[in-house]
Structures are given as C-alpha cells and as structure tokens.
C-alpha cells in the first residue's frame, strides 16, 4: 500500500483550541461574569427539565417532543445568531472581529455522533447539563462527569490514530 501523507493539517489547525482567542488581558474577577452566566444557564436547564433523565429517555424512545423542541429551538437561535453576526459584521463587546471557518464533513463525525448519542442515552446526560444535574443533588452523575473527562483525555491521546 502506498504511504499516504497527512493532508488534513489545514482542517486540523482550524479545530485547534483558541482559534479566536482574545489577546486582551483582564483581572481574575473579570471571569466572575462567566460563573454568573453558568449558574443562570444551569437554572434554565433545571427549570426546562433538560437535565431530567426521564425527559432524555422519552426523547430517545420517541415518546415526547419536549427535548426535540428545545434542541430545535437552540438550533434556530444559533443559525439566526450566526447569520446576524455575518450579515452585520458584529464584533465582540471589546471590538474584536468574529471569524467563522468552514469545516468539511468526514466519517469521524458519524462515529463520534453515534458514540455521543449512545453515551447520552445510557447515562441520561450530555456534557452541557452535567454540572446542573450534580447541583440538583444527582451526585451519581459525578461518575458520568469523570467518564466524560477520561473520554476526552483518551481522545486526545488517540486522536492521530482515529478516523477523521
């Protein structure tokens, strides 16, 4: 078999961490706003029942539209937001431009999506609401959180050997 050179470097360079990283420096307390937004986001997750294991099971069993409605609404809001940012060249609150990079579809996304969905169905949790679930007293979710962290670490370790 012919030795193939890795030609997807450009694609991989775009999915690296901190592509749009700000070069501004702030005091440590500047990040408290993210804590406040995170707590509010967690409250919304709990009140909308996004963190409910029963709601997640209903979704995967096709018994309820609740989760599909929430996910669909998030997709519509995201699409509209990106369209507005591109159309009006909206900048960050600090005046920095926002860049979007095209990504090509590949088979690794199918494998990753299936693995993600399987984990979501089995555990009743996806990465977003894990902390909100723990905050509601479902401490068994700590196992899921540690598993998500371990899975991320294993992916980083094996990334070059996986299909992308």
Automatic annotation (TrEMBL):
Name of protein: DUF6691 family protein
Matches recorded under InterPro entries: DUF6691 (IPR046513)
Top-rank taxon, per record: Bacteria
Transmembrane segments: 34-54, 66-85, 110-132, 138-158
Keyword list, A-Z: Membrane, Transmembrane, Transmembrane helix
């Amino acid at each position: 078999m012919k030795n193939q050179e890795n030609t997807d470097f450009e694609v991989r360079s775009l999915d690296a961490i901190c592509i749009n990283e700000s070069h501004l420096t702030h005091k440590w307390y500047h990040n408290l706003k993210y804590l406040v937004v995170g707590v509010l986001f967690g409250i919304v997750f709990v009140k909308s029942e996004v963190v409910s294991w029963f709601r997640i099971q209903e979704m995967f069993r096709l018994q309820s539209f609740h989760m599909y409605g929430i996910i669909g609404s998030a997709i519509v809001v995201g699409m509209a937001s990106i369209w507005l940012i591109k159309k009006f060249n909206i900048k960050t609150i600090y005046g920095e431009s926002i860049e979007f990079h095209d990504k090509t579809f590949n088979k690794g996304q199918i494998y990753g999506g299936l693995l993600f969905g399987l984990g979501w169905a089995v555990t009743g949790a996806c990465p977003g609401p894990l902390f909100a679930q723990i905050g509601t007293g479902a401490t068994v979710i700590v196992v899921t959180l540690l598993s998500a962290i371990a899975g991320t670490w294993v992916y980083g370790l094996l990334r070059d050997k996986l299909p992308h």
